[in-house]
Amino acid sequence: MSDRRRSTAVRTGGAALLALTFAGCAVNPATGNRELSLVSEGQEIQMGREADPQIVAQMGLYPDSSVQRYVREIGLRLAAESERPDLPWTFRVLDDPTVNAFALPGGFIYITRGILTHLTSEAELAGVLGHEIGHVTARHSASQMSRAQLAQLGLGVGMIFSETVRDYGGLASQSLGLLFLKFGRDDESQADELGIRYMTREGYDPRELAGVMRMLSRTSELASGGGRVPEWLSTHPDPANRSESILAQVTAGDYASATTVEREGFLRRIDRMPFGPNPREGFTEDGVFHHPELAFRLDTRGWGVDNQKSAVQFVAPDGGAVVILTIGSGSPEAALQEFGGMQGVSVGQGRRTEINGSPAVRAPFQAESQDGVLAGEVVFLSYGGNTYRLLGLSSSAGWGAAAPTARAIQESFRRETDPAVLSAQPDRLDVVSTSGRLTFDDFRSRYPSTVDPVIVALINQLESGSVLDRGLWKRVVEGN
Hints:
The chain is of the alpha+beta class. It folds into three domains: 41-141 and 178-270, no CATH class; 279-422, Protein Transport Mog1p, Chain A (3-Layer(aba) Sandwich); 426-477. It contains 17 helices and 22 strands. Strands 10, 11, 12, 13, 14, 15, 16 and 17 form an eight-stranded antiparallel beta sheet that branches. α3 (65-80) packs across α5. The N and C termini lie far apart (74 Å).
């Protein structure tokens, strides 16, 4: 590139960056600070509305309408106290066992039944919802996207005139997520502050949010021993430090009138809530995946199982191949025809077959992807009033080696007949009322649980040597 063209590119890129910076400066409604904003409020709302159905399809809604209504009413009261009360605020309880809560741009807030089973008061719930509302009111998602857009633009301008930047542009793009991760962590602390602002405006005791952080810290310690780290901790500051910061903010503020905790009413709301994974939606045992609700089973053949609401994936140990089980529609032949009509998919000759008594149709296929050509075989099978799609695929080069195991998984689909499997039920919370003070050991002895004592202490936010006052406490029992 000539020096003149290089100079023109630099001036053009610099002018574009400068124009975007000035055009995108706006006042943050929650903090009052001026900051970069390249995403409008309308765009925020549109992004949330488009993503919401995908979240619901992937994770599922908790089916108890009274719990949905309870959480929604609290969330709407808190949102009305925020700096953006006119957003289309939406609050949903997801039927997911993980300890999690998150927000999408535009006012879409999600909380799992998993975190609800670990909370001990309405004030704690208000603190979690207030925190997520804070992410939305402070436009944290929009701010991060604006920074990323600006960085990408700067990178693109650099590629025009710098051979070095152009050569390593792909690597730099992949690093942008890590570059902006620290902003997310700062945002979490700010969301804690805003959560306190909103919950105390509704009269909730802000010290309860510190209790949530202590619970998350203990959950994290348990997960480090081999469990699953709470999703809320993935990019968040250490919850123990957050608990201290929250208590310091409470001490420094004037929250004398914010005293509502509402422990008893909250615990009665979550009584009998499923605890942990729901086996009726599928579970793996001794190398077999069982689905009691739909009454079928498949052999895993040593492949890993990722069971989601909308699909079950059997993944090869090296990650190079997968069998994906979903529910389709129409007859197997019609479903295969529809599959062959998808863009980028080329289907070979289909043949009718039978798999353990169920009529089916099987066909080889190839599909174009961003990573190259994929190859595999698809089976559409009619069983129990549904048409199931079992899609086995790998890279074109890897399918030959993966095909025998993938086919064995597909062909192992059969009716579930084991009464113990068909009648499986999830464990549930059981809220019990104690008539006097008990040691923790006495409580466990009098009210036994199906889970480890460490978990019982965790969900009640107790230490193992605690003495329980008279009142309501949680245990976990077999479902029915």
